[in-house]
Design brief:
38% helix, 9 helices, alpha/beta, Rossmann fold, 4-stranded parallel β-sheet
């Protein structure tokens, strides 16, 4: 169920035990072959797939499209909010949802730059609304073990505008993908402790503008992307999201929407 497709009376009578999903994304450069709205399109597709799989028992909020993308501003087309502004926007939305009586919320992130502040948002939500439950996750973390066998390229193959993100767009919006322009790119950090990708986080973090990590805006191997792989990723994430909801709220997930 999409929040913005329901009427006010319908939302008013919906079971307050219904699990709510808030997708958070970004509009930023994704190399020469993908649109700047890639993360937002991925968010919309993942939550829609998850809702279809569970028979419409999730209540899906409109995606927060603009995220924290300051590190991508070395490339044209990037839009960004500061961490402070972004956190306040998301918290205000959570306040609206909780004020409407819904207290079981998953924040699903589709952009790496939102990950650190997303954890802070979840902590602040717990302090502000102690009787609510706000769970934060990113799509590549929630389905980590299921996604690992799908990686074909050697490190770094899955990072940004990469093997995985390009595959999802090939499966869902192929008309927006310019595969003829796809280039494998990404400069390896000198210290092995700084080497990480979507599935394997690094042991240490060095905050670096993205144009110092890549020449074309890509970090990974988009040339290995396929539509079939993209559909497998979508299925893995959607099933993993439903498993999370069911595990967190087993009784409410079954009764949601009744």
């Amino acid at each position: 169920m999409r929040w913005d497709h329901l009427s006010s009376p319908e939302l008013g009578t919906l079971s307050k035990q219904t699990p709510v999903v808030l997708p958070i994304a970004a509009v930023e450069q994704h190399g020469p072959h993908l649109p700047v709205g890639t993360d937002t399109m991925i968010a919309d597709e993942l939550v829609a797939a998850a809702d279809r799989m569970c028979g419409g028992r999730l209540l899906v909020l409109p995606t927060v499209a603009i995220g924290c993308s300051e590190h991508h501003k070395g490339f044209p087309g990037t839009l960004s909010l500061s961490h402070t502004t972004f956190a306040e926007v998301v918290l205000d939305l959570l306040g609206s949802v909780i004020g409407s009586g819904f207290k079981r919320i998953v924040v699903l992130n589709t952009h790496g730059g939102n990950q650190a502040v997303g954890g802070t948002i979840a902590e602040r939500a717990a302090q502000r609304w102690p009787d609510a439950e706000v769970v934060f996750t990113s799509w590549w973390r929630i389905a980590n073990e299921r996604l690992r066998p799908l990686v074909e390229g050697a490190f770094p193959s899955i990072g940004h505008a990469c093997e995985f993100e390009t595959s999802i767009l090939l499966a869902t919006r192929p008309e927006l993908v310019a595969m003829a322009l796809a280039r494998d790119d990404g400069r390896l950090p000198t210290a092995p402790q700084l080497r990480g990708d979507l599935l394997d986080g690094s042991a240490a973090t060095l905050a670096t503008p993205f144009h110092r990590m890549t020449t074309c805006g890509v970090y990974g191997k988009p040339t290995l992307a396929t539509a079939a792989k993209g559909q497998a990723i979508i299925t893995a994430v959607a099933e993993s999201l439903n498993a999370l909801v069911t595990s967190c709220w087993p009784a409410t997930a079954a009764a949601a929407g009744r």
